[in-house]
Structure formats: C-alpha cells, structure tokens
Amino acid sequence: MGFFYLCRLGEVSAPSLPQSESAPFRLCDVEFVVDSGHVTADTTPIHLIDYAHGVRLLFTTQKNGTAGEKIAHGCTGDHLLCPTRAIARLAKHLRQLQAPRTTPLHCTDPVTCLSVHARHITAALRHEARLAHPTTGINPNKL
After folding, report:
1. Fewer Cβ neighbours under 10 Å: the N or C end of the chain?
2. Any idea of the CA torsion for 96, 97, 103, 105, to the nearest 10 degrees?
3. CB 4, CB 124: distance < 8 Å
4. Conformation bin of residue 130: beta by default, left when phi > 0, alpha when psi is -120 to 50
C-alpha cells in the first residue's frame, strides 16, 4: 500500500508512538469496485474481491479536519504491481483469519497485530530508488 498510495505513512503503517494522532486504514475502510457497484472488504463474500477492478480507501480523519473523503485507484493489469490486487490480498488475508472489521490494514496477524511500520516502508522505497537510480537519477537518501 505504501508504494501505491504514498499517503502519510501513519495511514498505511503502524503508528510509531503509542499516543500518535495517526488514523491507519482499517479493513472496514476499504471498498472494492466491481461490475455491480461497490462492495466493502469487511462484509462482501471473499470470492467477490477477486473480481474487483478498483479500490477506494476511506479517510476517517485527516489533518485538514475533513472526514469521509475517499482515495481511489484502478487496476493496472499487473498481478503484483497493482494497488487493487495488493489491497485485495491484504483484505482476503485478514478475512481468512477472521479479523474484526476494525483491524488496521498494517496488521499481518489480527491476534498479535504484527505490523508494518513506517520504517519498513521507507526502507523499501529507498531500496527501490537505489535500484532505479541509474535510470531516474533520484537520490534514494532524499526519500
């Protein structure tokens, strides 16, 4: 998710401080776009998630004070490099583990809440920037 949405890292990862004001996306904040309309990740039958051609994430809180806005992405057609497929994998994983609807998407295990943290996303982005540096000229240390 960190690659595709590039939001504040607190929205796609575990908060680094216990009293953080970050509001990470939760399973119930995910909507998938399917031919019949929009379905929610926390209640729709799991097999329907495979037919999604878009995904929307609901901001419950934002710095600007506006709640209820959504950010959307469509399918790229690539199995791995696709925001819809990436979030579908997360949603299906959490649903198969019977995670509560309020489980943050950064939890890889809803029981112990093993989490992806901002430092993990930053390290992954820097790694990819190092690999792409000869082509892009982007300094990975500036990320």
Report:
1. C
2. -60
3. no
4. alpha
Q: Which two tokens stand for residue 100?
A: 């509560």
Token pair 């999604």 in the structure block, residue = 52
Q: What is the pTM of this model?
A: 0.70
For the stretch 53-86, pLDDT in tens is 999 888 776 555 556 677 788 888 887 788 889 8
Say how far apart CA 90 and CA 93 lie, in whole Å: 5
Residue 6 has pLDDT above 70, yes or no: no
- Decide if 54 contacts 77 (C-beta within 8 A): no
* Nearby residues of 128 by Cβ (< 8 Å), 6 or more positions away: 3
> Rounded to the nearest 5°, which phi and psi values hold at 53?
-120, 15
